[in-house]
């Protein structure tokens, strides 16, 4: 894949962030959106599904990279700001899967 970097799943850790979207090994289906942290359930899925590697056009972000992205408005919110809650037409609260530590909590 042109301009894509292969990420070995064994090296991916909770809290890692990447500057561009991360894709499954097929190169088409997205695993993780840019700037979003890897959560415990992400790592568990990789292990459960025995995914050996992922692809990204980005790089692993440092704290400084994340602060720069927040200051440049490349990221919607900083990591210390909780996500805003959305309410759909039925009045039901919508939440992000990123708020869950364990997929079993769903």
Q: Flag low-confidence runs.
A: 77-83
Please state the average pLDDT score.
Answer: 80
- Tell me the radius of gyration: 15 Å
Share of β-strand residues: 15-25%
Class by SSE composition: alpha+beta
Order of helices and strands: EEEHEHEE
| Percent helix | 10-25%
Major beta sheet summary: 4 strands, antiparallel
Overall 3D shape: globular
Ends distance: 35 Å
Strand order of the largest sheet: 1-4-2-3
- Helix count, DSSP H or I runs of 4 or more residues: 2
Total beta strand runs? 6
Which key features would you list for this structure?
single chain, 106 residues, alpha+beta, four-stranded antiparallel sheet, two-stranded antiparallel ribbon, 2 helices, 17% helix, globular
Describe the 3D structure.
This protein has 106 residues and is α+β, with helices and mostly antiparallel strands. It is 17% helix and 16% strand. The chain contains 2 helices and 6 strands. It has helices at 40-48, 63-71; strands spanning 5-8, 22-23, 30-32, 53-56, 86-87, 93-94. A 4-stranded antiparallel β-sheet has the order 1-4-2-3, with no helix packed on it. A two-stranded antiparallel sheet has the order 5-6. A hairpin with a 6-residue loop joins strand 2 (22-23) and strand 3 (30-32). It is globular, with a radius of gyration of 15 Å.
